[in-house]
Sequence to fold (142 residues):
Amino acid sequence: MHLVYPAVLAVLLFCTGVYGVLARRNAILVLMSVELMLNAVNLNLVAFDAWLRDTLHAGQALTLFVIAIAAAEIGIGLAIVLMVYRARGSADIDRLRDTSEPAMDRDPDGTGAPGAGEPGATAPGHPDDPAGPAATNAEASA
Fold:
């Protein structure tokens, strides 16, 4: 078997993956490009294992290990992409700077207190209101 054919195919796959990582803006397409690069490495491992006629088949064993790691990587990567998409509404890499970046301004008036209709806001007289039920009683008696 000639080693040139799988090596050239692996180079083409790897270059396609590098182009996809550098040129794409969608996170899912970047993950697919990373998978192309890993498949190019796997092709090289199997080709060199067959060319060297290794009795332990270390290239094939390492290929199985790389496939298992790639499966775990794509699972975690897709979970992160889905989390970002749900929080931001887009999986665009250029617009994503930091995962802790707030999706919207939760402090519209700048006081540090939540605004009306937000999860931390409570109605006057509510048991969770810092002034307590006494605030509504004082308003009612006045």
User: Anything to note?
Assistant: The radius of gyration is 28 Å.
